[in-house]
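Q: Given only this backbone (153 positions), what sequence would you predict?
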């Protein structure tokens, strides 16, 4: 006989944006930087991974970011713990721009496509909670942006 967990559909394992935001807020209230390895490049750590969601902490040193990307159909909540990021995103048939400041939270729809970059002098720390989980590869295959390097001529 199947257990009640086995009877859940994959749709029921997708959290609401309110639930994602509550998880992000809870992680941000602690010491999220403790989940990120030390280093000078953009880096991340997984705080928790379940069948329903994943929570990540990402460190964005000055001049680093990700080119336009999506999250594979996952919706997300993003909480900026420290620093400031610039986000360019597709909305209404055009590319929009907004700044994500420390203390702010954004909810991202399942079809959200964006670029995120730290144009400031200090490292930014963010908490991201995705449902359904995006898996590790989503962060590794998107083109990195690193304004700290100068192209050779």
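A: Predicted residues:
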């Amino acid at each position: 006989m199947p257990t009640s967990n086995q009877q859940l559909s994959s749709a029921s394992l997708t959290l609401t944006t309110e639930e994602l935001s509550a998880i992000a807020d809870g992680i941000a209230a602690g010491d999220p930087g403790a989940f990120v390895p030390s280093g000078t490049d953009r880096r991340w750590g997984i705080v928790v991974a379940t069948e329903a969601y994943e929570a990540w902490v990402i460190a964005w040193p000055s001049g680093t970011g990700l080119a336009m990307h999506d999250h594979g159909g996952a919706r997300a909540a993003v909480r900026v713990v420290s620093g400031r990021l610039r986000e360019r995103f597709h909305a209404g048939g055009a590319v929009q721009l907004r700044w994500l400041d420390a203390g702010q939270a954004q909810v991202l729809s399942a079809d959200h496509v964006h670029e995120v970059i730290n144009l400031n002098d200090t490292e930014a720390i963010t908490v991201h909670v995705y449902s359904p989980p995006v898996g590790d590869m989503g962060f590794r295959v998107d083109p990195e942006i690193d304004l700290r390097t100068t192209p050779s001529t």
